[in-house]
Amino acid sequence: MDELSVPAAPAYTHRVAMYDMDRTITRAGTYSGFLMHVVRRRQQWRALLLPLVGVAGLAYTLRLIDRSRLKAINLRLLVGPRFRRDEIAPLAESYADKVVARGLHAAALDQLEADRAAGYRVLLATASFHLYVDAIARRLGIEDVLATRLDEPDGADHVHARLSGANCYGEDKFARISGWLADNEITREDAHIRAYSDHVSDHPMLHFADEAVATTPSRGLKKLAPQMGWMVVDWRARK
Fold this sequence. Notes:
Blueprint: E1 14-19, H1 31-41, H2 50-61, H3 67-78, E2 82-84, H4 85-102, H5 106-117, E3 121-129, H6 130-139, E4 144-148, E5 150-151, E6 158-163, H7 170-183, E7 191-197, H8 203-208, E8 211-215, H9 219-228, E9 231-233
Parallel strand pairs: 1-3, 1-7, 3-4, 7-8, 8-9
Antiparallel strand pairs: 2-6, 5-6
Helix pairs in contact: 1-4, 2-3, 4-6
């Protein structure tokens, strides 16, 4: 991908580069990989529950449950209804090491560095869990992160296998982005915004941006991007 250019005028107070994570920066989705990473290293007997994970997936396909419920069910089955923070944290760190070592698009890393060099503040916005996303973000030098939260009572030793608030996906992700901009006193007219995603569910974020980039896009986004005038790139191989 050719390095994106920054418009000469007007002079913007803020520059923000918003990145999705799964299949945008990473080569594959990370959610299922994290669950299986935990199963193999913590409670291997939970692999016996994989048929129930399949049943939950079928229920989602049939629209009997939504995406948020599916994620909570799978987490409960493969990690547990609640789990100790100090037990799961090392597994999140080792999983992050694995993803960063072998699971990133080199071209995405190049673009991250190009955006930073051009003065952009990088925001990682993903539907994956903060539980391990924060560890991946630290390894990428990304300080601003929006991800799906789990119920983690203040002062408690345990994390519960249920979502706290909405799944950070689609319109709900964009609502979180809007809140982040407001919290950081970044107004739309004073900001130049880039957005990168592989999936059509990120239409709200991409539409909001001055420069929208469909990265190794899914079928739906590949069809939509030319209609919207968005750049399309393939990050599966470094150029």
